[in-house]
C-alpha cells in the first residue's frame, strides 16, 4: 500500500529516462504490491516488444500519477520515439496513457522523417499516428514536408553530355579584311 501511494506522485531527477507506456509498468507494480499472496518473478509477454516501442523522455522534472495514468515532463523536454521516427522538443509534455496521446506545449518542435512541425501546442494521437498543431494566440503553425517529385526522378530524366567546345553560330556579317598599320 505504501508503494502504491508513492507511485501516485513521483518526481524524477534531471536526465532520467522514462520508458513508456507507464500504465503497464504502474499496473504491474501496483498489482504485485496490492496482492496479499507472496510475489514471485513473472515474465510479461508485452515486455519483450516494449524495447522496440520505447519512447525516451528527458526533462528537468518528471511526475507520474498512477491514479490518472498521466506522466508530465517539464523544462527542456526532449522526446525520442524511434519506432515512429519521431524527435521532439518542448517546454512541457504530458503523456495520457489511457487515451494514448501526447500533448506537447511551449515552443514545440517535432521532426519525423525530415518533416517538421512548429507550434505552441502539438498533440500526437499515437494509435492514429496523427499530429494536431495549434499556434500561439494570433500566430500560425509552421510545417515543412518533404514531397517527392515523381516527374524529376532520375529514371525519366535525359541528361545530355557536356560539350566543352560549344557550337558557334554563323556570323551575321562577313569578316572584314585585316588592317595594316
From TrEMBL:
Q: Where is this region: Disordered?
A: 152-181
Q: Which domain of life is it from?
A: Bacteria
Cleavable signal peptide: none
Q: Which Pfam families match?
A: LptD_N
The Organic solvent tolerance-like N-terminal domain sits at 84-129
Task: Give me the stretches of Polar residues compositional bias.
Answer: 171-181
This protein is called: Organic solvent tolerance-like N-terminal domain-containing protein
Species assigned in the record: Planktothrix tepida PCC 9214
Classification lineage: Bacteria, Bacillati, Cyanobacteriota, Cyanophyceae, Oscillatoriophycideae
Amino acid at each position: 500500500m505504501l508503494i502504491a501511494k508513492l507511485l501516485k506522485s513521483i518526481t524524477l531527477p534531471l536526465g532520467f529516462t522514462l520508458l513508456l507506456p507507464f500504465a503497464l509498468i504502474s499496473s504491474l507494480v501496483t498489482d504485485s504490491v496490492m496482492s496479499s499472496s507472496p510475489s514471485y518473478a513473472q515474465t510479461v509477454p508485452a515486455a519483450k516488444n516494449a524495447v522496440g516501442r520505447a519512447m525516451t523522455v528527458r526533462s528537468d522534472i518528471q511526475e507520474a500519477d498512477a491514479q490518472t495514468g498521466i506522466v508530465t515532463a517539464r523544462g527542456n523536454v526532449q522526446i525520442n520515439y524511434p519506432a515512429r521516427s519521431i524527435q521532439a522538443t518542448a517546454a512541457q509534455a504530458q503523456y495520457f496513457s489511457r487515451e494514448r496521446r501526447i500533448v506537447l506545449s511551449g515552443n514545440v518542435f517535432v521532426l519525423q522523417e525530415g518533416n517538421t512541425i512548429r507550434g505552441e501546442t502539438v498533440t500526437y494521437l499515437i494509435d492514429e499516428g496523427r499530429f494536431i498543431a495549434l499556434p500561439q494566440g494570433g500566430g500560425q503553425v509552421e510545417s515543412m514536408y518533404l514531397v517527392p517529385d515523381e516527374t524529376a526522378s532520375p529514371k525519366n530524366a535525359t541528361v545530355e553530355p557536356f560539350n566543352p567546345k560549344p557550337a558557334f553560330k554563323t556570323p551575321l556579317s562577313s569578316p572584314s579584311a585585316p588592317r595594316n598599320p
